[in-house]
């Protein structure tokens, strides 16, 4: 189907690009780098979709001799970047694989035997939970993978998913920091989680964990997740408990969040102003079912168009966070595409409202697109192609809809990740 090119499409894509650029490790990481240790080694480890780009930024901006750097980071397949001294390993996401398990074991080995003179620089970003695949003793990788897949399809929030992951891991939930003691541990993190909680980003491998085994049990029970017998027993007895804030081995650990969804939204807001649209940031931590979020944000957009409340047109509504999709159908989709499909139904083809929804890592769920665009004529073009939008939403087939209409946004891996980006553009009514 022929793609509709328009100034609005270009503007929306420009807002997304501005948001992604604000979280580029080359831009946001250098100012946070420490002075090299006066004595001892510097070991760099990390995990996440931005890990390779973060490692490259470290090498290019290190204040000491970069040839003295060593270590390794693990990122998603296809998200690697060239480095000279820090090894980059690629592994599976969102469900872990053997490559991630081997990388996690090597990272634990790399920080073992450190001294108080040494520095461990930890680079974390979204996706690190799956990529640091080190199941607790007695749990096989295949079992951990099964639990992860069930959680991802259940509609659980990222905080809930990572609570369970931490308690079934040998490296998450603060355990990496304990393995590196007594070295100084400095963590630089790009946040992909609502609220920018360090204990949730990549499942918090270097910070104390405020959640408990009881919390993890409650989550799996509520969502009907079947656990391996050894995992359930470890949670019931407390054997899987994570280290807490009173553990003295955290004394030399320091963490900083260097990029957030809010910063990305602020960059997009600045870009919108230059194009004559007044921005309104509705929040950087929106969660819940993607289709339900679409109904709410669609209602706000319609109010702007009809009544100028909460903002008169021309304006753009910006939001971030991480919605979820409870999968019940057999179609293809990601949460951003599903959001837009729900928004299409909520807006009913309103002639002055356009939207984009994308994941800032360049991958919407497990598909090959970052997200998609929604235009006023989307419902009409869908009808002309015999596409039933409501039926496709029931089947979780948002990807199929926007692929057929030529409205997918395909960027490839961006090598950063501050989670979802949504922009709803409301144009002014024509004067009569």
Question: Would you summarize the structure shown here?
Answer:
With 432 residues, this protein is α/β, with parallel strands linked by helices. The chain has helices spanning 7-22, 25-28, 51-61, 98-111, 128-131, 141-152, 158-167, 175-180, 213-222, 229-237, 261-274, 290-307, 335-347, 378-384, 389-394, 398-405, and strands spanning 42-47, 69-76, 87-91, 119-124, 184-190, 253-259, 278-286, 315-321, 353-359, 371-374, 408-409, 420-426.
Would you give an account of this structure?
It is a single chain. 38% of the residues lie in helices and 17% in strands. The chain has helices spanning 7-22, 25-28, 51-61, 98-111, 128-131, 141-152, 158-167, 175-180, 213-222, 229-237, 261-274, 290-307, 335-347, 378-384, 389-394, 398-405; strands spanning 42-47, 69-76, 87-91, 119-124, 184-190, 253-259, 278-286, 315-321, 353-359, 371-374, 408-409, 420-426. The strands form 2 sheets. Strands 3-2-1-4-5-6 form a 6-stranded parallel β-sheet, with helices on both faces. α7 packs across α9 (213-222) and α12 (290-307) packs across α13. The chain is globular, with a radius of gyration of 22 Å. The model has no long low-confidence stretch (mean pLDDT 95).
């Amino acid at each position: 189907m022929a793609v509709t090119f328009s100034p609005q499409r270009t503007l929306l894509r420009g807002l997304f690009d501005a948001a992604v650029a604000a979280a580029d490790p080359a831009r946001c990481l250098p100012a946070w780098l420490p002075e090299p240790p006066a004595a001892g080694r510097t070991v760099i480890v990390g995990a996440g979709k931005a890990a390779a780009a973060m490692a490259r930024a470290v090498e290019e901006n290190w204040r000491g001799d970069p040839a003295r750097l060593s270590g390794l980071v693990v990122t998603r397949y296809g998200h690697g970047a060239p480095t000279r001294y820090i090894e980059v390993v690629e592994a599976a996401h969102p469900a872990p694989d053997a490559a991630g398990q081997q990388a996690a074991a090597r990272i634990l080995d790399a920080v073992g035997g450190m001294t108080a003179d040494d520095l461990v620089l930890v680079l974390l970003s979204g996706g690190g939970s799956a990529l640091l695949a080190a199941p607790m003793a007695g749990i096989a990788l295949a079992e951990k993978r099964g639990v992860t897949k069930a959680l991802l399809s259940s509609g659980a929030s990222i905080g809930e998913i990572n609570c369970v992951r931490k308690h079934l891991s040998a490296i998450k939930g603060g355990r990496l920091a304990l393995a590196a003691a007594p070295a100084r541990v400095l963590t630089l993190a790009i946040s992909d989680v609502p609220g920018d909680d360090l204990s949730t980003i990549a499942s918090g491998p270097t910070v104390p964990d405020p959640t408990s085994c009881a919390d993890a049990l409650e989550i799996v029970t509520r969502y009907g997740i079947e656990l391996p017998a050894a995992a359930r027993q470890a949670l019931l007895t407390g054997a899987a408990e994570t280290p807490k804030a009173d553990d003295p081995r955290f004394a030399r650990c320091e963490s900083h969040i260097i990029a957030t969804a809010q910063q990305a939204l602020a960059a997009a807001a600045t870009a919108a102003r230059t194009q004559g649209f007044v921005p309104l940031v509705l929040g950087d931590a929106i969660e819940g079912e993607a289709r339900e979020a679409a109904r709410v944000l669609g209602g706000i957009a319609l109010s702007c168009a009809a009544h100028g409340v909460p903002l008169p047109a021309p304006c753009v509504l910006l939001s971030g966070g991480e919605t979820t999709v409870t999968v019940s159908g057999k179609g293809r989709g990601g949460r951003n595409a599903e959001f837009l499909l729900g928004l299409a139904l909520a807006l009913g083809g309103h002639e002055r409202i356009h939207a984009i929804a994308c994941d800032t890592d360049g991958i919407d769920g497990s598909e090959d697109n970052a997200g998609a665009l929604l235009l006023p004529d989307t419902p009409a073009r869908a009808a002309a192609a015999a596409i039933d939008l409501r039926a496709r939403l029931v089947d979780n087939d948002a990807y199929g809809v926007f692929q057929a209409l030529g409205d997918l946004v395909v960027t490839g891996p961006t090598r950063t990740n501050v989670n979802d980006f949504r922009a709803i553009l409301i144009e002014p009514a024509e004067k009569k």
